[in-house]
Amino acid sequence: MSSPEQTVQVDLASRSYDISIGHGHLGTIGSLTRSWLQLADEQPLKCLIITDTNVMQPHATAAKQSLDAVGAETRVIAVNAGEGAKSLQEASDLYDQLVDFRADRKTIVMAVGGGVVGDLAGFVAATYARGLRFIQAPTTLLAMVDSSVGGKTGVNHPKGKNLIGAFHQPAGVLIDTATMETLPEREYRAGLAEVIKYGVILDVEFFDWLEQNIDGLNRRDPDVMRHVVARSCELKAWVVREDEYETKGLRAVLNYGHTYAHAFEALSGYGQLLHGEAVSIGMICGSRLAARLGRINSSDTERQAKLLTAVGLPVEVPSAMHDQHDAILNCMLLDKKTVAGDLKFVLPDRIGHVETIGGIDSDTVLACLAGD
Ligand SMILES: NC(=O)c1ccc[n+]([C@@H]2O[C@H](COP(=O)([O-])OP(=O)(O)OC[C@H]3O[C@@H](n4cnc5c(N)ncnc54)[C@H](O)[C@@H]3O)[C@@H](O)[C@H]2O)c1
Ligand SMILES: [Zn+2]
């Protein structure tokens, strides 16, 4: 059954676009695409849909049917599921597909999938013929609340994640929360870490609301999902509007928990710990660090840990990592916020507000790997 849809506007001058959030409305993506692109019914529409092998059935197929029904010429390409698809080689194969499809400057690229598909397809759209219009239909919670908002696209270099990329805002985003019915439980819960992060960094009322809706979160209740996705998109859209190209420092607030998380992900071997799981643990370490520096009450750390635990996320550093101090610090020094060896952390001073703090000595950083 489909419930009412909600639209979040991303306000970026000439690059503004809508995010349409609903439950069971993926089948309207054809008509929405025509309306976003201001294409009348009789005007031609050509669309390359990029998806992955897990999302192809039933979601990318449903998107294709919807586009076919509005007279579009479509082709669907499924890349292998997983981070490995975010490569220059895969992008190059997709350029070949666009050539073969006789794509021109009016051809649309559509991503139907998680963050991997979104980043890859967005990068191809940003670069082919100096930029094709791009539409996203994210199908993981992480992609719905994070990677599909903000216009960052890219692929990985063998030496580093997301090293090759471009800013390219979509023409529209359709979020059908019913597509998450096929999403594995662990992937879903990992996405909730970024949702809880928004509450801590920007919105105490949202954090309170999440605490009051734990059952709905765990059941993936459609109304709860809609509010979770809409509020998260609004908050990220606000940050992006204020700092679209990450030049003013504000966008950095989104990195709360991430300096620790990147180290945990790297040490556990990518894939062992999902990004959202590492962020969950990283937020708790960050909040402990803020408490050690006298910036926040430890009861606020407890509140975060309680909520994260209630939605099934880990909050303790895996024991195998406790003694790996040098390796953890080395990863942190590679973090993009680190300038000239000065570790910088986004730290809360209360639930709903964070600041970027530098000049923290490494012993204090490491002391927060364990609770008191
Ligand atoms: N551009 C940005 O601003 C931004 C922000 C955050 C993360 N990212 C990127 O996003 C990527 C991670 O995204 P992700 O967590 O969505 O990973 P993902 O795209 O790999 O999806 C996770 C897994 O779920 C599967 N899947 C996706 N949707 C499904 C569905 N509805 N049903 C069943 N299976 C489904 C995928 O095939 C994959 O196996 C990373 O590459 C990260 O760098 C980008
Ligand atoms: Zn993240």
The tally of structural domains comes to 2
What best-fitting shape do the alpha-carbon axes yield?
A: globular
- Terminal-residue CA separation: 48 Å
Largest sheet: 7 strands, mixed
SSE series? EEHEHEHEHEHEEEHHHHHHHHEEH
Helical fraction: 40-55%
Uncertain runs are none
Going by helix content, strand content and strand pairing, the class is alpha/beta
CATH architecture of the largest domain: 3-Layer(aba) Sandwich
CATH topology of the largest domain: Rossmann fold
Number of helices: 14
> For the largest beta sheet, what order do the strands appear in spatially?
1-2-9-6-5-3-4
- In the CATH scheme, the class of the largest domain would be Alpha Beta
What's the β-strand tally?
11
Which small-molecule species are bound to the chains here?
nicotinamide-adenine-dinucleotide, zinc ion
Rounded radius of gyration (Å): 20 Å
In round numbers, the mean pLDDT is 95
Query: What percentage of amino acids are in beta strands?
Result: 15-25%
